Amino acid sequence: MARRLRWLAPERVDDLPDMCASCAFWEVPGTKEPSCGESSDREALLEWIRTVRTEWGECGRIASDGDEVLGFVKYAPPRFFPQVRAMPSGVPDSDAVLIACLHVSATARHAGLGKVLMQAALRDLTSRRERAVEAYAAAGDVDREHTPLMSVEFLLRQGFVVTRPHPRYPLMRLELKQLAAWTDNLEAVLEALTLPMRVTERAPASLAESGREEGLS
Fold this sequence. Notes:
The chain has a single domain (3-207), classed as Gcn5-related N-acetyltransferase (GNAT) (Aminopeptidase), CATH 3.40.630. 21% of the residues lie in helices and 24% in strands. It contains 5 helices and 9 strands; from the N terminus they run βααβββαββαββαβ. The protein has helices spanning 18-21, 42-55, 113-127, 152-157, 186-192, and strands spanning 3-7, 60-65, 68-76, 96-105, 132-138, 150-151, 161-164, 171-175, 204-206. The radius of gyration is 16 Å and the shape is globular.
């Protein structure tokens, strides 16, 4: 079956891995450790997607192989993520879009899919004339299986730099004007990836867990 990049939409939430389909860590206020499923509220997540798409625009991309989700990325301006107010490295700048989550299924890692999802997000934001993106990174001794954060190493390879250091959760930034002109057809790149095996489980693996792999964090 053909691999595709689709928009993150309410009707596609149930296609996400079970933990992600109800995870509202970023969308619910409060002080919590960055952990997938720390706040579980499917209706809050659905309402968040509807609100962001109405007030701002598309807020994520899903990579799939037929009906099977391989991975996804979620992003929006910081004002749509109440949890940023509790992050120890501070609130992102108002001129940047926050890339909050980037997940790849456990059986689709180490093949470059993380880079494809990141580029899909950056292309969308560049076409909308956004100035910059920011992301919280996971560093040091954290539970990389369950953090929604990407690794410092992965973000550095995508061109991000640390703007607000923190021993565990630094904030990193990428200026979109620095990006070269896009030439690759991302769906063709996605189709050409040599994945270890067809995804058979819905549980995701954080990109942070595999941050040392080339092209995938």
